[in-house]
Amino acid sequence: MLASILNTSEPILKDTVVDLTYPNSMMLEEVKRNQIHVLNYLRAKLKNYQLKFNLILDEKQEKRFAYTPEEKYQKLREMNPMIEEMRKLLFLDI
C-alpha cells in the first residue's frame, strides 16, 4: 500500500528536501508512519544523509483521482467526448 501511495505524488527536490503532496490525510499519515524507514533506505542508497521529506496536504488535488465508476466515466468523457455518443449507440450503462 505504501508503494502505491508514494507513486501518487510527483516528488519535487529542493536541495536536500523532497516535497511530497498528497490529496488526503489518510495517505499523508501512512507516509508519515513509514517516513523513517523510507528515508533511511534512500539516504543509504543515495549516500545523502541530509535528505528530508516535506509532506504537504492538498485536498484540492483529490479531484484528479477517479474512484467510482461514474467518476471514471466522467474523466474518460472529458478526455474524449465521442465516448458518450458510442455509449448511446451501443445502449451501454455506466
Describe the structure.
The chain has two domains: 1-57, no CATH class; 64-94, no CATH class. It is of the alpha+beta class and 94 residues long. The protein has four helices and three strands, in the order H-E-E-H-E-H-H. The radius of gyration is 19 Å and the shape is elongated.
Concise description?
It is built from four helices and three strands, in the order αββαβαα. It is an alpha+beta fold and about 90 residues long. It is elongated and about 60 Å long.
Helix content: 40-55%
Instruction: Using the CA coordinates, give the radius of gyration.
Output: 19 Å
Structural class: alpha+beta
Give the N-terminus to C-terminus distance in angstroms. 28 Å
The main β sheet shows up as: 3 strands, mixed
**How do the strands of the widest beta sheet line up side by side?**
1-2-3
Would you report the number of β strands? 3
Instruction: Give the mean pLDDT.
Output: 89
pLDDT below 50 for ≥5 consecutive residues: which ranges?
none
How many domains, in number, for the residues?
2
In DSSP terms (H or I, runs of 4 or more residues), the helix count works out at: 4
